[in-house]
Design a protein that fits this description.
With 417 residues, the protein is α/β, with parallel strands linked by helices. Helices cover 41% and strands 25% of the residues. The structure holds adenosine-5'-triphosphate and magnesium ion.
Length: 417
């Protein structure tokens, strides 16, 4: 089956808001083996939308539209579609009662404008929308099944799951595509590519894609078949990618974050961490505190930016600072040990570097960062790296490397036990 999607809303034609509903729709269609052939963004303009619909009806077996079902004058989807289909709009008593009921539940009377949301196209099926006021509508027109759905993503998600997905399940042969992702930290895209290369021959190049962002590469794989086959196949493919990538593969799934994985490892080991940060300004601490329940594993952070602050708050020897400079291996090590001891944690992270744009020298150019990790057995690891990019990116990459260093150490300490 083939489908088209239309996102309605003038704000989606501007620079402030992006059409993200099409991503939800695309994902759903893909999983059911439906090919999305066309997507369009149309402003809140009845004439424009009517013409767009005329071009799609009868041409695609499935057309989905989101947005413009609200109560205000700029919400024109119902009228535009009615015109394109040559159908009447009528007030539906049951829908009106439902909309009124929703306002009553909030202790309010329904404003008169909301009456418009009770208008339905003659011959259409009303799709309940418990997360919002306006229902969705579904109708058959000239060989096309047309879904009109709300623009608010949370409402749309509900309708996709409870109305559109069952319809797709009834229609389709159950065959679909599903994708999964393996996340890799701190390896260049080219290295990841080299490592996963054997899978191109095994699985097919078109089923594997790499997407790089600073400090991270996502390896996405797709599986085909019915729902059960897909799940088993996807699991096998993800496991294969993890083996090929090796230890740098830190987790699966888009929701998985490096800090989340580090937090999980700390929790498993009953260990805690503290940070002594200079150039990252507390970014590692910020990321670690994103983890729900982080108080069990994150002790605290000292952001020591000036030399005196490093001395006073984290016991960095003055002599080290004057002899090696603040951005140096000994200072990074002292920051790590200082954080660990002063804050009383099992692990200490120390970071010092030159984020730029100023402050670089020939010997220590912008992007120079020293990172150190002090562990429970007093042992330390250190890395001296040169990071690319602007100030923001250097800071982000430094935080990424710090978390990855800790993750590797925790994996190591886990294996030794
Ligand atoms: P409601 O019935 O709840 O008023 P609606 O169907 O009229 O919803 P709109 O008023 O068009 O929807 O949009 C509601 C909100 O959802 C707006 O904030 C809008 O920017 C956002 N929105 C609409 N369409 C999209 C889209 N395609 N992608 C992302 N956000 C969207
Ligand atoms: Mg709108």
């Amino acid at each position: 089956m083939e489908a088209a999607f239309v996102a309605v809303g003038s704000e989606l034609l501007g620079t402030q808001r992006l059409d993200t509903n099409s991503l939800l729709i695309t994902d759903l269609l893909r999983r059911h083996g439906v090919r999305l052939r066309r997507k369009a963004v149309v402003g809140d303009d009845e004439e424009e939308l009517c013409r767009e619909m005329q071009g799609l009806l009868g041409r695609f077996p499935l057309v989905l539209v989101t947005g413009g079902l609200g109560p205000t004058a700029d919400d024109v989807t119902r009228q535009a579609v009615a015109r394109a289909c040559g159908r009447e709009l009528v007030e539906d008593a049951a829908v009106l009662a439902d909309v009124e009921g929703k306002f009553r539940a909030l202790g309010r009377a329904m404003p008169e404008v909301n009456r418009r949301q009770a208008q339905v196209l003659v011959g259409s099926r009303v799709l309940a929308n418990p997360r919002g006021t306006a229902p969705g509508l579904c109708l058959e027109q000239g060989g096309t099944t047309l879904f009109l759905l709300p623009g608010v993503s949370r409402e749309l998600e509900g309708l996709l799951r409870h109305q559109v997905e069952p319809w797709l399940e009834d229609r389709g042969d159950g065959q679909g595509i599903e994708s999964g992702v393996v996340k890799v930290a701190c390896l260049p895209e080219s290295v990841v590519e080299e490592r996963v290369a054997p899978a191109y021959a095994e699985i097919g190049r078109e089923r594997i894609s790499l997407l790089a962002s600073p400090g991270e590469v996502r390896v996405e794989v797709t599986a085909r078949g019915d729902a059960d086959q897909r799940r088993v196949e996807l699991d096998r493919l993800l496991a294969r990618i993890e083996v090929l990538v090796g230890e740098a593969a830190y987790g699966r799934g888009d929701e998985t974050t490096l800090e989340g994985v580090v937090g999980g490892l700390l929790r498993e080991r009953g260990a805690t961490v503290a940070t002594g940060e200079s150039c990252t300004g507390g970014l590692v601490a910020q990321r670690l505190t994103e983890i729900p329940g982080s108080s069990e594993l994150f002790v605290g952070s000292v952001v020591a930016y000036s030399d005196p602050a490093k001395e006073r708050l984290l016991r960095v020897p003055a002599e080290e600072l004057s002899r090696h400079g603040a951005v140096s291996e000994p200072v990074a090590r002292s920051l790590a040990t200082g954080a660990r001891q002063v804050l009383g944690a099992d692990w200490g992270i120390g970071i010092t570097g030159i984020a730029g744009p100023g402050g670089g020298t020939e010997e220590k150019p912008v992007g120079t960062v020293h990172l150190a990790l002090a562990g429970p057995d007093e042992a330390q690891t250190h890395r001296h790296i040169r990071l690319p990019g602007d100030r923001r990116q250097v800071r982000w990459l430094a935080s990424q490397v710090a978390l990855e260093m800790l993750r590797r150490e925790l994996l190591g300490s886990g294996r030794q036990r």
